């Protein structure tokens, strides 16, 4: 066999890349082509260009140096799940959890929209690396886009430019992402994924997860497919380090659906008593987590991103002071309001807006001043809680995995799965109320397994089987938990204070991992009794705590039945082990429920 020399791989990769750029240019007909190097000078040039074109507005440079505002088209403010497709040769491989089109038909449909779409525009070639540039867990891609705003965001959100291109040349492969804002007509908008070709095509949107292709499209949909083939996990999870008073740091990964508290938990500021005792919280990631079993059998995780694309509304000194401190400089704000002196403003901040997110004089009759899905894009390094371990090539070891969602009733504040199989069922069964992060109705309860409903690039049944496959000899798997910060009382208000006080729940979780914390066993898992949680200094009525930790077996019966029906929607692809587990819990609930509920459910 002839050995292929490194230089040959390098030149053939560059050839592939050049040929692809040429092909795209022939189709889209840009006026110019710009290869991004990620330098400061390039960033400066793009900012000036966008300021001149009105794509960016400078905010108050005295209070917010280096901060700018971008207003997207009012019909282009969130991910569009109904226009997001996974195009596999076999429809079953995409699964009922994805919208699907056959690859040939999909290419034909979207290429027709790309035809000539970059006339009068510059085509930017954006090489990027998801994850630390020297990590074996990282993966690279190249996004072609005609949006300088996308380039500017990709520069913050990924390791973008020359170093990424060098890694691509060395490795010989990369994910291809083609993006154009097109004419922003929602009728000519598609976000298409071709996992078998490791490629993405997105047109008609300039917004977040639709357009920053390194993020949801690559790091979740395509990566989840690759991860299944290669034995790792690509998840919609934050990664946070919790340092206890003894100076030990444990890392936790948590999956909550979009706009359900990942960024907040990742940057949590401990309550005062905890701070005094020496607890610290370190942010590794706030949205995406790639993890792989290490030589020691533990799961080791990296954050593939380099920045935060966080929800602005609700971010305040009271809720997330770390995030607020992070966005005081060098931040791109999208669809927030502004004050009379040009500072960014959103609901939850003090002061008053004068101009709303659409650039109109603020009038409460028009709704919120900032769009509910308005965002900030900022380098993760600017967070006061930023963990240097986020740059570690081997990643960080995960002690606990947490699932959670917005559940106004039924689901307790926290519970622990009995074992890995049960934990996978807990993740698969996740439900949450929809939020403004995607277009469509808000506040509707839907199943969102592992918070990946919009992001899993293949059949959920296969995905559950992949999760189960990590339970094998030699594995040192994290314990799995479920939390619910969003339980509401009869008055419609949240029962749990949330935010910094969530550390109380994390302390119990880590205590369980170390075999210290107590719990009672219930059909749905281990639940703390009020005395098992550290509630010192918390002004919470005893009745609220009781309600937060109650397990209503009669109420859980129909929920567990619905979970069974949901699992069945993936047909043969649902692993038997998961269905057996669901039946086991259903039986335990039936035995625990008072007789009338059993009869009703029977
Ligand atoms: N009641 C309550 N609300 C919370 C809590 N944590 C976060 N929120 C609110 O939930 C909303 C979204 O929070 P984020 O932390 O930005 O959500 P995310 O999961 O990072 O969202 P994406 O970036 O869309 O994936 C904000 O309005 C927060 O104020 C909590 O513990 N309790
Ligand atoms: O992808 C986006 O547009 C924002 C985001 O993090 C999410 O929706 O989970
Ligand atoms: Mn997200």
Automatic annotation (TrEMBL):
<dbReference type="GO" id="GO:0005829">
    <property type="term" value="C:cytosol"/>
</dbReference>
<keyword id="KW-0670">Pyruvate</keyword>
<dbReference type="InterPro" id="IPR008210">
    <property type="entry name" value="PEP_carboxykinase_N"/>
</dbReference>
<dbReference type="InterPro" id="IPR035078">
    <property type="entry name" value="PEP_carboxykinase_GTP_N"/>
</dbReference>
<dbReference type="InterPro" id="IPR008209">
    <property type="entry name" value="PEP_carboxykinase_GTP"/>
</dbReference>
<feature type="binding site">
    <location>
        <position position="375"/>
    </location>
    <ligand>
        <name>GTP</name>
    </ligand>
</feature>
<comment type="function">
    <text>Catalyzes the conversion of oxaloacetate (OAA) to phosphoenolpyruvate (PEP), the rate-limiting step in the metabolic pathway that produces glucose from lactate and other precursors derived from the citric acid cycle.</text>
</comment>
<feature type="domain" description="Phosphoenolpyruvate carboxykinase C-terminal P-loop">
    <location>
        <begin position="232"/>
        <end position="584"/>
    </location>
</feature>
<dbReference type="GO" id="GO:0005525">
    <property type="term" value="F:GTP binding"/>
</dbReference>
<dbReference type="GO" id="GO:0046327">
    <property type="term" value="P:glycerol biosynthetic process from pyruvate"/>
</dbReference>
<feature type="binding site">
    <location>
        <position position="236"/>
    </location>
    <ligand>
        <name>Mn(2+)</name>
    </ligand>
</feature>
<dbReference type="GO" id="GO:0004613">
    <property type="term" value="F:phosphoenolpyruvate carboxykinase (GTP) activity"/>
</dbReference>
<keyword id="KW-0312">Gluconeogenesis</keyword>
<keyword id="KW-0547">Nucleotide-binding</keyword>
<keyword id="KW-0210">Decarboxylase</keyword>
<feature type="binding site">
    <location>
        <position position="287"/>
    </location>
    <ligand>
        <name>Mn(2+)</name>
    </ligand>
</feature>
<dbReference type="InterPro" id="IPR035077">
    <property type="entry name" value="PEP_carboxykinase_GTP_C"/>
</dbReference>
<feature type="binding site">
    <location>
        <begin position="373"/>
        <end position="375"/>
    </location>
    <ligand>
        <name>substrate</name>
    </ligand>
</feature>
<dbReference type="GO" id="GO:0019543">
    <property type="term" value="P:propionate catabolic process"/>
</dbReference>
<dbReference type="Pfam" id="PF17297">
    <property type="entry name" value="PEPCK_N"/>
</dbReference>
<feature type="binding site">
    <location>
        <begin position="499"/>
        <end position="502"/>
    </location>
    <ligand>
        <name>GTP</name>
    </ligand>
</feature>
<comment type="pathway">
    <text>Carbohydrate biosynthesis; gluconeogenesis.</text>
</comment>
<feature type="binding site">
    <location>
        <begin position="207"/>
        <end position="209"/>
    </location>
    <ligand>
        <name>substrate</name>
    </ligand>
</feature>
<feature type="binding site">
    <location>
        <begin position="259"/>
        <end position="264"/>
    </location>
    <ligand>
        <name>GTP</name>
    </ligand>
</feature>
<dbReference type="GO" id="GO:0042594">
    <property type="term" value="P:response to starvation"/>
</dbReference>
<dbReference type="GO" id="GO:0006094">
    <property type="term" value="P:gluconeogenesis"/>
</dbReference>
<keyword id="KW-0464">Manganese</keyword>
<feature type="binding site">
    <location>
        <position position="216"/>
    </location>
    <ligand>
        <name>Mn(2+)</name>
    </ligand>
</feature>
<feature type="binding site">
    <location>
        <position position="79"/>
    </location>
    <ligand>
        <name>substrate</name>
    </ligand>
</feature>
<keyword id="KW-0808">Transferase</keyword>
<comment type="subunit">
    <text>Monomer.</text>
</comment>
<keyword id="KW-0418">Kinase</keyword>
<dbReference type="GO" id="GO:0006107">
    <property type="term" value="P:oxaloacetate metabolic process"/>
</dbReference>
<keyword id="KW-0456">Lyase</keyword>
<dbReference type="GO" id="GO:0030145">
    <property type="term" value="F:manganese ion binding"/>
</dbReference>
<feature type="active site">
    <location>
        <position position="260"/>
    </location>
</feature>
<feature type="binding site">
    <location>
        <position position="258"/>
    </location>
    <ligand>
        <name>substrate</name>
    </ligand>
</feature>
<comment type="similarity">
    <text>Belongs to the phosphoenolpyruvate carboxykinase [GTP] family.</text>
</comment>
<dbReference type="InterPro" id="IPR013035">
    <property type="entry name" value="PEP_carboxykinase_C"/>
</dbReference>
<dbReference type="InterPro" id="IPR018091">
    <property type="entry name" value="PEP_carboxykin_GTP_CS"/>
</dbReference>
<dbReference type="GO" id="GO:0071333">
    <property type="term" value="P:cellular response to glucose stimulus"/>
</dbReference>
<keyword id="KW-0342">GTP-binding</keyword>
